[in-house]
Amino acid sequence: MLLVTFLTTVYVPLRLRGRSQESVRLLHHAIRRFSRWLRHDATLEDLDDLVVAQFLLARSAEVSPNSVARERSGLVALWNLAQARGLVRLRPCVQAELLPEKTPRALTAEELDALVASAAAAQGWIGPVRASSFFLALIGVGFYTGERITAMLTIPRECWRRPWLTVPAVSRKGGRQERIYELPDDVADLLDAASKHEGPHLLWFPSSDTALRKRWKVITRRAGLGDARDVQFHVLRKSTASHLAAAGGDATTYLGHSSDRVTRKSYLDPRITTANKPKIWQMLPHLFPKRA
Asked: In a 3-state reduction of DSSP, which class is residue 269?
């Protein structure tokens, strides 16, 4: 059986029913990459430890360790279910990737100011809405709610009743928990301006995801932030967490994480969370006194 057939006819109905389409997309991507490396359409018979390990080794020379880990995770998930249903004999024993742990990057208050100024200078239109209005509203909603970009772009128009913004469960990761936020007046004004269109969603971007990310990179470059992965849309969510934690708030609860460990490991930027605390070097003996 083809792996893509197993995915669509068995795995999705049993494991991903009602889940995010992003999960399905990532599995399709892993199968496509595996098939390209095999030079034929991947089948269940290709799920062999040595074959998959060699594929991952080849991919490690092309993409980041995190990308390799995602592809391994997808293939192993399919493999485990196939083995449980008796379609393959052996369970996978392919070792997981050793991933480097990066310090989370959020935006400082000064960087947020630069991002807002850059968004205000955005040229052109997004549908009938000025690009500047759209991106300023996107930044405001993203920062004050901490919601992911996918959720923000799929909020129905009727979910905005100033000053209350409802993000329905179907728009959010996991698809189970609705959230309601009260937005400050200046962000509410921005959202009112950005929603003057006839599109189906409150923050409506009628072009492709690729086009949206290209325009965002223009904004981050102009703000002096560069355009690397760590300043893409998710940096707004990390900034929410870091500034909230620095102020003594509960970032884990606000973001809906399952544990403090998730928040600390992937969201809290120590430049922000420790800014008003004594520095470690200030608590240690001073070894090098100033010379006359």
From this structure: coil
* Residue closest to 4 by CA, chosen among 36, 26, 37, 27: 27
Q: Return the structure tokens found at 139.
A: 């930044």
Q: What is the spatial distance between Cα 76 and Cα 149, in angstroms, rounded to a whole number?
A: 28
State both tokens at 226.
Answer: 């560069």
Beta bridge partners of 165: 160, 181
pTM of the full structure: 0.82
Class of residue 251 by CB neighbours under 10 A (exposed 0-12, middle 13-18, buried 19+): buried
Phi, psi dihedrals of residue 180, rounded to the nearest 5° = -125, 130
Strand partners, 227: none
**Euclidean distance between CA atoms 207 and 289, whole angstroms:** 60
| Rounded-to-integer distance, Cα 261 and Cα 264, Å | 5
In whole angstroms, give the CA distance from residue 10 to residue 16. Answer: 10
> CB burial class (10 A; 0-12, 13-18, 19+) of residue 159?
middle
Between CA 200 and CA 203 the distance in angstroms is 9
**Gyration radius (Cα) of the chain, Å:** 23
- Phi, psi (5° rounding) for residue 272? -95, -45
Q: What is the pLDDT along the chain (292 residues), one digit of tens a residue?
A: 999 999 999 999 999 987 778 889 999 999 999 999 999 999 999 999 999 999 999 999 999 998 999 999 999 999 999 999 999 999 999 999 888 888 999 999 999 999 999 999 999 999 999 999 999 999 999 999 999 999 999 999 999 999 999 999 989 887 889 999 999 999 999 999 999 999 999 999 999 999 999 999 999 999 999 999 999 999 999 999 999 999 999 999 999 998 999 999 999 999 999 998 888 888 899 888 877 6
Rounded Cα–Cα distance for residues 206 and 225 (Å)? 26
The C-alpha atoms of residue 70 and residue 138 are separated, in whole angstroms, by 28
